[in-house]
Specification:
Elements: E1 3-6, E2 10-12, E3 20-22, H1 41-72, H2 77-91, H3 99-110, H4 126-131, H5 133-136, H6 140-161, H7 167-174, H8 177-185, H9 189-201, H10 207-220, H11 225-232, H12 236-256, H13 265-276, H14 283-289, H15 294-316, H16 321-336, H17 349-355, H18 380-399, H19 403-415, E4 423-426, H20 429-450
Helix pairs in contact: 1-7, 1-8, 3-13, 6-9, 9-10, 10-12, 11-15, 11-16, 14-15, 14-18, 15-16, 16-17, 16-18
Length: about 450
């Protein structure tokens, strides 16, 4: 007859596999957990009340923001002008870019004239426009619905790849203003979250994160700081592959459209930045609103981003530094970009998910933007509010506990009814091998369940 002794606060009271009880020595997260991990008495009621409150708040927020979006107009504005229209132009053999239009608007603004406050013309790199061609083969309504479904799935999948399993966290992200505003205009923010999630989840490999990061950088350009993350974490092979893959994809995609617009592309981006740099919620826009010149504002933003990347380099040399370095690289991308719309801040959920895979106060920081549910933000106070959200997440990255410390409590809560600590088994010689196999399988289960929390646990058997 076997005897199982658990030194981490777990005891087995009989021979049944499902009758484990966790005593939770010194850990408040695991107290009051009996077999099957169910809280006792009032704690169970409090947990249900908390879940109901969060769910009701998410639904109410989503309803209010949906009404606000419905009144704003311009549904799928960016998707229609930047992707669907460009795909149709490619199908008909036309140049998807219109650099002359942006040049005319920039000349009008420099002359002191009035230019449209909102316009959508294809400005994405050629690989993304080629990828949008399948949408243009479908009817407009069907392609728009398909795009929305893909973006919702991308957001959920990206958060799960970053280690989030708590449905409350995912619900809060889906109810936030940056995400809903991005869906309204047809933005690619959730796809960027998915790409970063793939790069993080498979960071131990070379090709998979290289393809993911190359795709993200080629699609939106401003997340180029992810390449710096590969550099500071000494993933040189992945960095080289990402650069090669990105370069080849850009050249190949432009070759498909006959290199149309390739020579004018840098000038087109410069005109776009000039036209819209005073809008949005970027640090450059904030400084311009405060009266700073354009050159000084852009240099200041780049300097702030460089400071964050230096911190990423410093953190990368510490235990669990790759996690902090990635979070800072994401914030640096938002800081350095001269053009940041409100829906770009959906990327704030990336560092939040990395450091808090379960619900905590930091998940509510992006939801504060729901108080400013306006598609176009030009007020200096409002822009300062958006920048403060980025600063709050950046400070959280720098000063939050190590992921392994957070993972210890999460591991006990997940696996308390099953196994915590060190198991010593003594049994008959004939049954010895069977119990050793059981313990090894149990160890693998613990490692797999804890991977999303960044734990590193080595049991002794």
């Amino acid at each position: 007859m076997s005897r199982i002794v658990a030194e981490g606060g777990v005891t087995r009271k009989s021979g049944r596999r499902d009758n484990w009880t966790f005593t939770g020595k010194g850990d408040s997260t695991a107290r009051g957990v009996r077999a099957h991990g169910q809280p006792l008495g009032g704690r169970r009621l409090a947990a249900l009340a908390w879940q109901f409150g969060v769910g009701a708040g998410v639904v109410a927020s989503a309803v209010v923001l949906t009404i606000a979006l419905g009144k704003s107009g311009g549904f799928l504005f960016d998707f229609n002008g930047d992707l669907y229209g460009a795909g149709q132009a490619i199908l008909h053999g036309h140049n998807p870019y219109d650099p002359g239009y942006l040049a005319a608007l920039a000349a009008t603004k420099r002359a002191g004239g009035i230019v449209p406050s909102a316009f959508a013309v294809p400005v994405y790199p050629a690989p993304l426009l080629i990828a949008a061609v399948p949408f243009s083969l479908l009817p407009h309504l069907l392609s728009g619905l398909l795009f929305l479904v893909l973006m919702v799935g991308a957001m959920i999948s990206g958060l799960r790849l970053l280690g989030v399993r708590d449905w409350r966290c995912i619900a809060l992200a889906l109810a936030s203003w940056p995400f809903l505003f991005g869906l309204d205009v047809g933005a690619l923010g959730p796809a960027i979250v998915l790409g970063i999630g793939v790069a993080w989840r498979f960071r131990a490999r070379s090709w998979t994160p290289a393809i993911a990061i190359a795709s993200v950088v080629v699609a939106k350009l401003f997340p180029w700081t992810l390449l710096v993350w590969l550099l500071v974490t000494r993933r040189f092979r992945t960095l080289a592959l990402a650069i090669v893959i990105g370069t080849v994809s850009v050249v190949a995609a432009w070759a498909v459209i006959g290199f149309a617009g390739m020579s004018e592309y840098p000038r087109m981006l410069a005109n776009l930045s000039f036209l819209e740099r005073g809008s949005g919620v970027s640090l450059v826009a904030l400084l311009l609103g405060a009266g700073v010149s354009g050159a000084v504002a852009e240099i200041t933003a780049l300097a702030a981003a460089a400071l964050m990347l230096c911190l990423a380099y410093r953190f990368a040399r510490r235990p669990d530094g790759g996690r902090r370095a990635l979070g800072l690289a994401v914030i640096a991308a938002l800081t350095a970009s001269p053009l940041v719309w409100a829906h770009y801040l959906v990327l704030l959920f990336v560092p939040i998910a990395l450091f808090s895979p379960r619900l905590s106060a930091i998940w509510f920081v992006p939801l504060l933007s729901d108080l400013l549910a306006k598609p176009n933000t030009h007020s200096l106070i409002q822009m300062l509010f958006w920048i403060s959200l980025e600063a709050a997440v950046a400070l959280y990255i720098c000063f939050s506990p190590a992921a392994s410390d957070q993972g210890h409590a999460a591991r006990q809560e997940l696996l308390a009814p099953l196994y915590v600590g060190r198991i010593e088994a003594s049994c008959a010689d004939r049954a010895q091998s069977r119990h050793q196999i059981t313990v090894k399988l149990l160890v693998r289960t613990v490692d797999a369940r804890c991977e999303g929390y960044g734990c590193c646990w080595h049991p002794h058997t």
